[in-house]
Amino acid sequence: MRLEPVEAPTLARRIGYPAAALAATVLVAAALAGIAGGNPLAVLGQIVDGAVGTKFARLETLNRATPLIFTGLAVAVAFRAKLWNIGAEAQLYLGAVATVLIGTQSGLPGPLVIPAMAAGAVVAGALMLLGPTLLKTKLGVDEVVTTLLLNFVVLLFVGYLLEGPMKDPMGMGWPKSPSLPKEARLPRIVEGLRLHWGFGIALICALGVWLVQAKTTLGFEMRAVGLNARAARFAGMPVNAVLAKTALISGGLAALAGFSEVAGLKGNLTADISPGFGYTGIVVAMLALLNPLGVVVSALFVAGIFVGADSMSRSAGVPSYIADILLASALLFMVLALMLSRFRVVRG
Amino acid sequence: MAEILRLDGITKRFGPVLANDGIGFALAEGEVLALLGENGAGKTTLMNILFGHYVADEGSVHVAGRELPPGQPGAALAAGIGMVHQHFTLAENLTVLDNVALGTRPLFSLSSGRRAARARLRQLSQDFGLAVDPSARVADLSVGERQRVEILKALYRDARVLILDEPTAVLTPQEVEALFATIRKAVAKGLAVVFISHKLGEVMAVADRVVILRRGAKVAEMRTAETDRHRLAEAMVGAEIVPPEVPAVTPGEVLFRLGGVSVAGSPGLDDVSLSLRAGTITGIAGVSGNGQRALADLLSGLAVPETGTAELKGAALAAWSPRQAVAQGIARIPEDRHATGTIADFDLTENAMLEDYARPPMSRKGWLDWGRARKRAEAIIEGYDVRCPGPSVPIRLLSGGNMQKLILGRVLEAGPSIILANQPTRGLDIGAVTYVHRQLLAARERGAAVLLISEDLDELRALSDVIHAIHDGKLSPAFARGQVTVKELGLWMAGQGGRDAA
């Protein structure tokens, strides 16, 4: 068996396989729900209902999607240039640390403190990814390994901060940071609704990344370096500088997820502020085919599954872990579908 | 003579492409059959079917009267078919003996039988004139020697049919002669040889019979004794070939000069002095891997001289980079148009702007002007006859010739003063080759200095005003047009030039 490229895939081919992938995902979910003792159709219905059924559910999904848009964009930007940033989780946490430090220690006046926190977070995350990237371009150290392992280093470092220098003296011994003052909290988009401006910033970032990729010379360079670094270098592109710029943008975007969670949602930093948003960002970006506007859609989809599954498990008694399997199978089927829409399998 | 091999109605499709269309021929013991055709005519596909790498959609292969099961290289090997691929399949870290014996002995056996194998290898070396040291590591061998190992590998397995896929592409003229001597010895012992080539002179010299393929179909079959180069060429291309006219041009000033330049590498450059003059094509002849890459990198801006001087238009090179090279008016046609010349998944518009996207009018202050970029791509498609559905298709869908035309348009549009043409016609069909030659000659008439690096001696001798041979990073003296014979050039390419005279 081997694969033959389909030179000009028909529309049916390009849409049919992804649609089949979605159907297969639903089937897997239904089967799992059945095995777990639920009524498959009811469980699926409750997931959808829990994600978008009520105003509260919809806002909850948007809130959950916010950090995923940031980390999804971070991964999409980096992967486009074939810079394998698996470290969005670490960048997110450092962004959160910078946000708390500036928010509680800087003493800046009200209107300045939020931009300062955002800028501090971006710088922290950007530098976090710049290190592994320079190791890659100067010494050829594989960035998959460095960025992945630094996630654990940073998480332990944050644990240390929360037990030590950054521990909230009023926290009754809990490992958490002091809370941000009110003027350092992101306001809500609509008064009275539980949705903060982090979501708005995420949308603006998605638009910005799309603009950079589609309309600027830097975006052109990033795509060229990702597709064929040798040809890019031959054509005169400064490949290493392009990778460094990509790292700064990617790390900064991931750090904004930490900023948005602390300043928008939680108000303080704990070691469990991210249930793996950095890693889920990879799924989000892959499902979006690394398209920055697609990242918004896939982040909403992924967030909806998580929020919906949480709500379903409370009422149907089926474990919410079904969300993880749903997501994993959605990604696997989608990757397979994309391959099948570009290649056909030939025997012999 | 007994028939040893017969192919009947071989048809193979790759998607919509008909690579082989009902091809059949027979081969007798002691016969050399040439398979002649341009790149992409279907020669290699046909041989891969014969050897079992591909399964034909229709048709059959018979060896000595018995049908070969399709898709089993093992069966082809057992039936006595030996294949020497264009790209060698040797384990570089093993010795010659290990490579030859690899796969012929049981995996678990106490006595390895090395002594017997060595004796047999020596005997074969002697019988077929394939001198090579059995205990040398393949990594230390030259390209010509590696090819001998490949042939020995096939002979060691008692091959009765030897398939040589474009065997001369990597050899010097003297090595080609030695290979032909080996082929003659082999057929004298009753082997049959299939010689795949697109070079007419070689086919006429070595083959008894020629099968000509064009666009996947067999268009003619003739005996070399009853035909001539001219008729072969017409059958292969389907039209008469007109050699390019080279008008006299008075050479101008030196635009690029290397003085005693050395660059580290394997091989790099070793004390190379070279002058490129306006209105002159300077040819570099050599077997690939003898320093051509280092020379091309130097002119492309990818490398700087470690010792020696490099002058561009009279000034020493400063801050040398690919972008700098382009800005200084150097047009660069890279050796590998797929890997370095283009980005496969970029469309024609994007590939056309790869070198100047960062300057006005393609962009301003970091913002791209897609409208202009597209117009420029359309102008190149029009002006350089790039056959394509439009500027927004990915360039990987284009044929090699059309890809090369886009590269030509990209680098020649600006009217460069220096042109680096590194293997500009490799793998192109005759129409595209002629087009590239005409463009280079037109640039020469316009007063550009052209550096033409090629493995095709006919091309070099037809176009170059001055030829150097390159061997192991060293450049031969410059020979003016018509001043050097192929034989002398071959000696220089082998690093033995100038010794006869001394």
Please write out the topology.
The complex is a heterodimer of chains A (348) and B (502).
Chain A: E1 2-5, H1 11-35, H2 40-52, H3 55-80, H4 88-105, H5 110-139, H6 143-163, H7 197-215, H8 217-227, H9 229-235, H10 239-266, H11 277-287, H12 292-316, H13 322-342, E2 343-346
Antiparallel strand pairs in A: 1-2
Chain B: E1 3-14, E2 17-28, E3 32-36, H1 43-50, E4 58-63, E5 66-67, H2 73-78, E6 81-84, H3 96-101, H4 114-128, H5 143-156, E7 161-165, H6 173-188, E8 192-197, H7 200-206, E9 209-214, E10 217-223, H8 229-237, E11 254-263, E12 269-277, E13 280-285, H9 292-300, E14 307-312, E15 315-316, H10 322-327, E16 330-333, H11 337-341, H12 348-352, E17 363-364, E18 367-368, H13 370-383, H14 400-412, E19 418-422, H15 430-446, E20 449-454, H16 457-463, E21 466-471, E22 474-475, E23 479-480, H17 486-493
Parallel strand pairs in B: 3-8, 3-9, 6-7, 7-8, 13-20, 13-21, 16-19, 19-20
Antiparallel strand pairs in B: 1-2, 1-4, 4-5, 9-10, 11-12, 11-14, 14-15, 17-18, 21-22, 21-23
| CATH class membership of the largest domain in chain B | Alpha Beta
Beta percentage of chain A is under 5%
SS elements, strand count of chain A: 2
CATH architecture of the largest domain in chain B, by name, is 3-Layer(aba) Sandwich
User: Would you report the number of β strands of chain B?
Assistant: 23
Tally of DSSP helical segments of chain A? 13
Report the largest inter-chain contact. A-B, 23 and 36 residues
Order of helices and strands of chain A: EHHHHHHHHHHHHHE
Distance between the termini of chain A: 5 Å
Strand order of the largest sheet of chain A: 1-2
CATH superfamily of the largest domain in chain B: P-loop containing nucleotide triphosphate hydrolases
Structural class of the helix and strand makeup of chain B? alpha/beta
How helical, in percent, are the residues of chain A? over 70%
Gross morphology of chain B is globular
Task: State the end-to-end distance of chain B.
Answer: 49 Å
Which secondary-structure class do the elements of chain A indicate? mainly alpha
Residue runs with pLDDT of under 50 for 5 or more positions of chain A: none
CATH topology-level fold name of the largest domain in chain B? Rossmann fold
- Overall tally of domains of chain B: 2
